[in-house]
Amino acid sequence: MTFGIDLKVISESDGARRSSSGFTLHPSTLMPIPLELKAGDHWWCSCGLSGHQPMCDGSHKGTGKAPMKFTLTEDKKVWLCDCKRTGNPPYCDGTHSKPVEQAS
Asked: pTM surpassing 0.90?
């Protein structure tokens, strides 16, 4: 499953990752974010531009990127990905602890 983000990183500086597609990801941390969420619809930021990580605040507008909607059927604690490299979005799968693939 992809969300329109090319995550093959070609450079890193000042906490920003520049992908081979030219899009810059700005994760606020490289660790999962634990949240107590209410049942209902939520929008996870998949672009890294939101000022309210890990949730979308609309900052992606004009980038061609989009948030991911997820629905909880009950109130629960979740660990949401903030590195934007998870294989199970929007949930953390531990990918943040693996080395980032660098282009040569």
From this structure: no
